[in-house]
Recover the amino acids of this structure.
């Protein structure tokens, strides 16, 4: 199994917290599509005929493209790669872009899963984030998507946001349940360098919430989702049933090969990681003039071990020590203290974070990393 990610960099507005590459101008949209098609053609052998089980249009805001543009790109991908008949084809979309007509057109183009950027069910929080949609547009877009026959829907929510009380967060999760969608991605607000949010906080115009509040929100999320029977299959991701686990997300966490297309997109093939240039004009110019448009790094055995620990511990499948080769004993010796603290559960040689452990996932993983010269 392999995956394809396509980064569509166009957005209607600049969300204050976002550190992904984007542009609010559509001026280069036609040139972008031409360049992406050329990149697809140039990379037709990169997956070595592995079946492609997931195609993901991310961004940015891919719903800024028209359905016929999505359809043309999908056609080139199918001509260039061995796309499975039942491939999961996801389109990230904002509620304000999704009219009933456009949803039907996306479905006809081949999209069978929508990732809708909800972020919050409160207009005042959406305004704080500088989002373009309203809460009413959230409910309308999801209802119309379901009526159009796209029932595989995931939404994003952000917690740890100033002004989001515990009661509001619990209410948000209840509203999520009422939507009858199949998947949830929930993230703690992170202040990334060089974002508008970082600048607003540095200037004193915004005050960020405490880590303790964000941790309480995460505890509440795990509790309510667990009581409702949802699968917490990755730190930030929940599936209603096993067959609604995102193939795209699973590719990242389970060491699957994937290629990234478009400006700033990343690719991985178990031995190398590479990332395309940005901004958009630079990406287009280099693609069209047949110049090198990416950087890459080769992964040594230590890199691979560290990555296997970092990604594996984030999932409900955990890390199987028997698959760590020469690092097996090192891993088992260093993780034992977290087992004793009930942060990690052990099943034979499989190590999985407990609810408490998930609160400290990054800290646990980094403590298990192997440093050269150790």
């Amino acid at each position: 199994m392999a995956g394809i990610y396509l980064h569509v960099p166009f957005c209607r507005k600049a969300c204050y917290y976002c550190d992904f590459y984007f542009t609010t101008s559509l001026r280069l949209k036609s040139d972008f599509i031409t360049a992406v098609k050329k990149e697809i053609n140039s990379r037709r052998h990169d997956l070595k005929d592995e079946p492609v089980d997931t195609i993901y249009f991310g961004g940015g805001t891919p719903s800024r493209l028209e359905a016929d543009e999505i359809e043309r790109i999908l056609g080139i991908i199918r001509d260039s790669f061995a796309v499975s008949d039942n491939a999961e084809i996801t389109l990230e979309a904002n509620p304000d872009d999704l009219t009933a007509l456009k949803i039907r057109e996306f479905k006809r183009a081949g999209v069978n899963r929508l990732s809708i950027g909800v972020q919050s069910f409160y207009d005042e929080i959406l305004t704080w984030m500088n989002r373009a949609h309203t809460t009413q547009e959230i409910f309308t877009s999801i209802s119309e998507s379901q009526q159009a026959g796209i029932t595989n829907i995931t939404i994003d929510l952000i917690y740890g946001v100033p002004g989001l009380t515990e009661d509001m967060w619990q209410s948000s999760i209840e509203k999520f349940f009422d939507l009858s969608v199949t998947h949830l991605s929930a993230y703690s607000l992170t202040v990334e360098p060089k974002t508008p949010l970082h600048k607003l906080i540095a200037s004193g115009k915004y005050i960020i919430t405490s880590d303790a509040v964000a941790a309480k929100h995460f505890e509440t999320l795990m509790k309510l989702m667990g009581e409702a029977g949802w699968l917490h299959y990755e730190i930030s991701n929940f599936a209603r049933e096993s067959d609604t686990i995102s193939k795209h997300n699973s590719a990242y966490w389970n060491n699957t090969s994937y290629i990234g297309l478009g400006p700033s997109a990343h690719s991985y093939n178990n031995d190398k990681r590479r990332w395309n240039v940005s901004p958009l004009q630079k990406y287009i110019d280099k693609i069209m003039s047949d110049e090198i448009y990416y950087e890459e790094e080769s992964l040594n055995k230590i890199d691979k071990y560290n990555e296997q620990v970092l990604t594996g511990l984030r999932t409900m499948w955990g890390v199987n020590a028997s698959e760590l080769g020469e690092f097996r004993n090192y891993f088992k010796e260093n993780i034992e203290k977290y087992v004793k603290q009930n942060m990690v559960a052990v099943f034979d040689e499989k190590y999985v974070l407990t609810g408490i452990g998930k609160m400290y996932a990054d800290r646990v993983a980094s403590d298990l990393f192997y440093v050269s010269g150790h």
Q: What stands out?
A: The first strand starts at residue 2 and ends at 8. The radius of gyration is 21 Å.
